[in-house]
Amino acid sequence: MPLLAVRNLKTYFRVRAGWVKAVDGVNLNLDEGETIGLVGESGCGKTTLAYSITQLLPSNAHVFGGQIIFDMEGHATPYRPAYWNMAEARAAPDLQKAKAELETVQSAPETKEATPRLEELRRKVDALENPLSETYRTYLAPEIQALERTVRDLTMKFETGDKASRRALAEAKNRLAAATQNGDLVDITRRPDGRLREYHPKLNAVRWKQISIVFQGAMNALNPVYTVGRQIIETIRTHEDVGPEAARTRVEELYRLVGIPADRIDNFPHEYSGGMKQRAMIAMALALSPRLVIADEPTTALDVITASKIMDEILRIQKDLHMALIIISHDVSVVAKVADRIAVMYAGKIVEEGPSAKIFSRTIHPYTEGLLSAFPSVVGERRRLVSIPGNPPSLLSPPNACRFHPRCQYAKDICSTVDPPEVTPEPGHRGLCHFVDEFYARGGLFRG
């Protein structure tokens, strides 16, 4: 069971002109302690995917389908993917047909005629899925009942003055939330219209404590009117029952971990250099010892030397703490030396994913070839850099079938008329293209 499993995720933004399909059918697995690099041009959906995982989407974002399954300490969640695969197979074709029609209506421009049909389809999907969900809950009933008894017992102990039971009670509540919600973060917060609730108590068991994020642009991520140390202390005390002295001690430890002198804790953000601000944001992300950290463009606006040091620091901390890591970047060279696997996004979809070495040595998607050909290498023979022709498409109305075909030098008629299949020519290496097998057979498109 992976630590994180994203299944057919669809996150769209409602704007005046229609729906922006920022993340459209993404699948991604991440194991405990693994590092994956998420790369692609600006506007391809990388940050939206990160914000979908952490449930930090803006109010006009709607999650129209899919699951974000997080293994919350392994309680109950291993059953979820297999259960839903089995359940949907049993309920086909009615459930699949209703879901497909619902997605079509939701994606269409909003009209008076579409609204009643939308509600009708939502009720139909719920009617088909609810009995299956009840079956799942029944399957896990013994485990859930045992956890409920534990919570009741610990609550009674805590109410009688047993302070030692506080942490055990919090852990039991988190395990119960994991079992009852099955680890699906979308299930926890999604409203009927697809929007996510801004706050949910069960999500607090996950956000920042188990999944944290280093936001893009550390220059603007820190509050300028509070000291940096105070901001990290507040983060710790919001989620943990600790006093100010213990929280400050933890911040001092974090500063040493990321390479900032402890005497800079009481400085304001404007007194930090760009590299120090980035290190402070990393310290904040590590404050509660999460199992997964998402670093969104961690080297943005930094010079080459500082960026290299920051990436080395992130890699060292990841190895020391054995945490899982998602590094988001538009620059393949940034993630090449730190990622175990690389996933390439284009126009809201993952078009290629595989081990880092394979992405470079045996590329199976033309877009990945374009990315790799566009950045210089400091090893091997000198070669001419080649840019990808054209521009990324508007996600309001992406191209039919293969979304890369208008820019692809290998495109044929089938590319504009038939959706490309996901092909896995070898274990752990997949591509979204009609010609994956052909490209793989000839040794890959790019061999760096």
Give a topology summary.
Layout: E1 4-15, E2 18-30, E3 35-39, H1 46-54, E4 61-70, H2 79-91, H3 94-107, H4 114-139, H5 141-159, H6 165-181, H7 185-189, E5 211-214, H8 218-221, H9 228-239, H10 244-258, H11 274-285, E6 292-296, H12 304-321, E7 324-329, H13 332-336, E8 341-346, E9 349-355, H14 356-361, H15 366-373, E10 422-426, E11 429-432, H16 436-441
Parallel strand pairs: 3-7, 3-8, 5-6, 6-7
Antiparallel strand pairs: 1-2, 1-4, 8-9, 9-11, 10-11
Structure report:
It is a single chain. This protein has 16 helices and eleven strands. It folds into two domains: 356 residues, P-loop containing nucleotide triphosphate hydrolases (Rossmann fold, 3-Layer(aba) Sandwich); 89 residues, no CATH class. Helix 12 links the parallel strand 6 and strand 7. By secondary structure, it is an alpha/beta fold. It is globular. An eight-stranded mixed beta sheet has the order 5-6-7-3-8-9-11-10. Helix 9 crosses helix 10.
In short:
The chain has helices at residues 46-54, 79-91, 94-107, 114-139, 141-159, 165-181, 185-189, 218-221, 228-239, 244-258, 274-285, 304-321, 332-336, 356-361, 366-373, 436-441; strands spanning 4-15, 18-30, 35-39, 61-70, 211-214, 292-296, 324-329, 341-346, 349-355, 422-426, 429-432. It is an alpha/beta fold and 448 residues long.
Assess the beta-strand content as a share of residues: 15-25%
Q: How many runs of DSSP E, i.e. beta strands? A: 11
The shape, in one word, is globular
What's the overall average pLDDT, rounded? 81
